[in-house]
Design a protein that fits this description.
Length: 117
């Protein structure tokens, strides 16, 4: 929060593919905090914390809006809290040397912070 960076978590409609990956992780580790399932505009999606990435506000072009209504797309509060909690946990573990996030987010974060100086 003090860095003023945003952390984006992509989502996909390839729910079955990521449900299988989720199940394998749960079987192997007993838990999977890097994939969260939830609804966006009435459709189930897989939120990929394992692919999250830092970004600066100046690189955000516009808010994600529903084409039909022109209104910003929102997820419900419990889902938002789960994604944020899991993302913070994954990032903390990444900082401790556990490779849970596929992009090299620590290097990207460092470069963005250097560029902001």
């Amino acid at each position: 929060e003090e860095t003023k960076l945003f952390w984006i978590v992509p989502f996909t409609s390839q729910v079955e593919k990521f449900r299988a990956i989720y199940k394998k992780k749960v079987q192997r580790y007993g838990v999977c905090n890097t994939i969260v399932f939830g609804r966006v505009l009435g459709y189930e999606k897989a939120f990929l914390i394992q692919n999250m990435c830092p970004i600066m506000e100046k690189y955000i072009e516009k808010e994600y809006v529903e084409k039909r209504t022109g209104k910003p797309v929102r997820i419900d509060e419990p889902l938002e809290k789960e994604i944020i909690s899991n993302a913070k946990r994954a990032l903390a573990l990444q900082r401790k040397g556990n490779k849970l996030i596929f992009p090299d987010v620590l290097m990207i974060e460092r470069k963005l912070l250097e560029a902001a100086k």
